[in-house]
Design goal:
With 209 residues, the protein is mostly helical. The protein contains nine helices and no strands. The chain has helices spanning 4-12, 16-28, 49-62, 84-97, 101-113, 119-129, 133-137, 154-169, 179-206.
Length: 209
């Protein structure tokens, strides 16, 4: 009841978390998108980090993440009260897996949906470890779209999001090795601004159709 039963089981057998998540996949045949589960109680278990690491491996191996919905692993980081251990886990996971695009995608997704104050530290940590622009460009730093209300200029919104990401990267002390990534971000900004101009033009012309 209220996940208390699962908590008691995990306190006796932390590895059961792997079986539990695996059963969710088997029973629901879902793609590990966000099910709005809240499993943040796992951080009440001592030394649960190695098990969560295995769960991440399981989830990433079973289903390719498309980035449309919040990733299932957000369940471990939703509505956290004590954040230090979860923060250290994600930072360490980034350090161990900075060459793996799929794993970094999951971390970034968590920081965008459930742990927003960690987005900047994770971004700065990643670029300090990996300055490869091809890898950087494959990660959904601003997400893959979203829901927009009528009347907004989507291109302008996306340009603002890219500008925020660039402003964070510019805080890095790495230096000239980040020039390709900064150029990529400027290209993203310019592309979004062009899209915004096209949206305005289409709306203007639409008034006369």
């Amino acid at each position: 009841h209220n996940e208390e039963g699962l908590l008691h089981i995990l306190k006796k057998d932390p590895e059961f978390l792997i079986d539990y998540v695996n059963s969710l996949y088997s029973e629901r045949l879902f793609d590990f998108s966000d099910s709005h589960k809240n499993l943040n109680f796992v951080w009440r278990i001592e030394n649960i980090e190695p098990v969560i690491d295995k769960v991440f491996e399981l989830v990433i191996e079973k289903a390719h993440y498309l980035g449309i919905q919040a990733h299932f692993c957000n369940a471990f980081f939703r509505s956290l009260t004590e954040k230090e251990r979860p923060k250290l886990f994600l930072m360490d996971y980034c350090k161990k897996n900075y060459l793996n695009v799929e794993k970094i995608k999951v971390i970034v997704d968590i920081t965008r949906h459930s742990f927003k104050e960690l987005f900047e530290p994770i971004l700065l940590l990643f670029v300090s470890l990996n300055q490869d622009v091809d890898t950087f460009s494959k990660i959904s730093w601003r997400g893959n779209g979203g829901t927009y209300s009528g009347g907004v200029i989507i291109g302008d919104i996306q340009a603002s999001e890219w500008k925020n990401i660039l402003s964070i990267v510019q805080k890095s002390t790495i230096g000239t090795s980040l020039i390709p990534i900064k150029k990529h971000l400027n290209n993203c900004i310019e592309g979004a601004l062009r899209m915004g101009d096209m949206e305005r033009q289409e709306r203007f012309l639409g008034k006369f159709v």
